[in-house]
């Protein structure tokens, strides 16, 4: 299980001969050992070792056989990137001793007998130091640039001064450690809401060391440990049966190929079967159903179907019978079309949609090839994972150009000529070609990889003698996008960079931490003013589809009927011109009165939006009957990009928002008046939404539950779905005559319906099939 959740924990150092022979293991300590370098004389190895819990790293050295291990630092910090001076007398390294995101360079003697000596004094990142071979110059990486970007710096190095400084440094262990581990609360944190505290929290969460906090990664795990320790030090209590503030949940973390179960054979009449090589000639698509298909192959051009509406329709299958056949289609869209038409067709060019169309036309399986006139000509389609748990419901694989040419060998045609005819956008010019001399049999097998992550939850009990049970729930999501694997909007040259997520959502997480600390202190001073308990929850999995908060609504630690309201913080670190946006105002009549009262002294330019369905964790709670309020300071150009860094935040504005919100939450916890629940019929034009379809039903999918079909969390008040009688927990399995296997099937089917005309839909309700009629409306 540890290997599934934190493979780096098992990292060890090995030595191997230059010709690859005689590998031997040198380290055996639990936790990560890595980053090894040889000493200048080649007699020792220098490396960094993490503690078992992964929060602290120190510098070590050893002989080439793994003996004589010396611990050079005991620094209570993240110490890494060590490098020997050519003299061999000392080591330079980077450490965040002075703040979670403030990495400085330090020296330590080669024996590790002295306390490290600080070298740099820049408030930011200085790391990855390397000496020039003669030892008179130092090269390192720093973000001390006007734009805050990391660049290479070089400086003169004074070897004699370094030796003198080390000689004057105290013996190691003779001075008390000033900074506790990165996973605990620094002593400098205040129980009051303060800019310095917010900087500390954001500095840790949005640091490169956490690598973007992608759900299920070691970075997210380190964030969770830090948050749990913050709750503990603030004085919160674990909730329910948990003793460590964690609520774990499972999710689908990816898809992998089951190598020994995939097969592909060309069955050419009169010839021996030809076996193709996995990963070279073919590969299953990540969306494939597992199974075996055998049959004749029919070419269906680009495999597109676009209903008329936003542009002229397009149907590669018109007049083509592919029932029980294996369909071969090209990737992408016709190459010679105008830009506007390409944009129209691109929406229907995803491999999921092409698989859906082939499946609905009765095809037995789907093959995809990148045509000779297309980008990446002849290459296999990527084995990409789109964070969903759903397959396509059809066996599907991709072929390379050479394998596809073998299919066409007996047809008298070439794929290049066929594609050229299609690229002028005549959908039927070259389709329907049955490759009768080439029959195929192939088996696809993929495995959905499960991951585990956790919500971090603590609570502040009500005053003694208060009515037990009722709580105010306060939350934010702490996960982000890693290196942009899921949902990143990185621009050219930003691919693969760490998405630090300073505003999204280290800012909201930090606000919750500060509110918790402040309210704990206020309850100690005035306990009777807290009629209700307050639950503080930090969610993971929001960026993958509200996974953590949706799990909580299915497994609440306090019954949702006893949850007075849910208050959310998502992207609250970019206050501009005093404009504070609050979504969910329409979910309770109490909100306007409460906010206007608090804002008399706060002085915000409030933008109050009725919409209780913004694309954040409130959408998990509102359909369950919980009034919601979502704090937000607006989107920006850096949204979901690596550019969402610490330096872009307005920390003084974040402090204002946090203080204001703490007052609102305290009012709720001390009020005898319970917020009423109002069902909002439609969202404001100014509200935010992830929905982009032209047709509107008002269904709210439950993205966190794996089912065959689409499970619904509920329906928006007054929406067509609400009028049709759809309920929370219904599983949609048919819509407009099409079988629905996943959210993509539903999206594509919804896009093809006509506004104002009733549509039949079939749902499973408590295991029984139920047929309903719904009339789509135009989306406003």
Task: Explain what this protein looks like in three dimensions.
It contains 15 helices and 39 strands. The protein is 21% helix and 27% strand. With 780 residues, the protein is of the alpha+beta class.
Share of residues in helices: 10-25%
Structural class comes to alpha+beta
Weakly predicted, low-confidence segments? 175-187, 682-693
Query: Nearest-angstrom radius of gyration?
Result: 30 Å
Question: For the residues shown, what is the average pLDDT?
Answer: 87
Q: How is the main sheet built? A: 8 strands, mixed
Shape designation:
globular
Strand order of the largest sheet: 14-25-27-26-28-31-29-30
Taking the alpha carbons of the first and last residues, their distance comes to 48 Å
The number of E-state strands comes to 39
**Number of helical stretches of at least 4 residues:** 15
Assess the beta-strand content as a share of residues: 25-35%
Characteristics:
780 residues, alpha+beta, eight-stranded mixed β-sheet, single chain
Please write out the topology:
Blueprint: H1 2-5, E1 14-15, E2 24-25, E3 33-38, E4 44-50, E5 57-63, E6 70-71, E7 79-84, E8 90-95, E9 104-109, E10 117-118, E11 126-131, E12 137-142, E13 151-156, H2 159-168, H3 195-205, H4 218-234, E14 246-257, E15 263-267, E16 274-275, E17 282-284, E18 291-299, E19 305-306, E20 314-315, E21 326-330, H5 339-346, H6 351-360, E22 365-369, E23 395-399, H7 401-408, H8 415-422, E24 433-444, E25 446-460, E26 471-477, H9 502-525, E27 533-539, H10 547-554, E28 563-569, E29 579-583, H11 590-602, E30 605-609, H12 618-621, E31 628-632, H13 651-670, E32 695-696, E33 699-701, E34 710-715, H14 720-724, E35 731-735, E36 738-739, H15 743-752, E37 759-765, E38 768-774, E39 777-778
Parallel strand pairs: 18-21, 21-22, 22-23, 26-27, 26-28, 28-31, 29-30
Antiparallel strand pairs: 1-2, 3-4, 4-5, 5-6, 7-8, 8-9, 9-10, 11-12, 12-13, 14-25, 15-16, 15-24, 17-23, 18-24, 19-20, 25-27, 29-31, 32-39, 33-34, 34-35, 35-36, 35-37, 37-38
